[in-house]
Amino acid sequence: MAYCVKSAKSGKEYFLHERKQQLKGGQQVTLYYFAGVAGEAAIDKLPAGYEVSENSNTGLPLLKKIKK
Questions:
Q1: How many independent structural domains does the chain possess?
Q2: How far, in Å, CA of 32 to CA of 64, rounded?
Q3: By residue range, what is the domain housing residue 55?
Q4: Torsion over CA of 46, 51, 41 and 8, rounded to 10 degrees?
Q5: How far is 63 from 16, CA to CA, in rounded Å?
């Protein structure tokens, strides 16, 4: 089951996905994003060190690093 967040503003559900991206310098990074439909790249749990917040204007979920 994919990690799901329900928007407080719109009531829509969004599913967390991840993608590996290779940068021009050769470094590989992981990108996290929310989508309205759970696809093949959907992940089951929230990554360690991250939290979910919501944009107050649009109601879209955001993934943020937890500040120490």
A1: 1
A2: 10
A3: 4-65
A4: 110
A5: 9
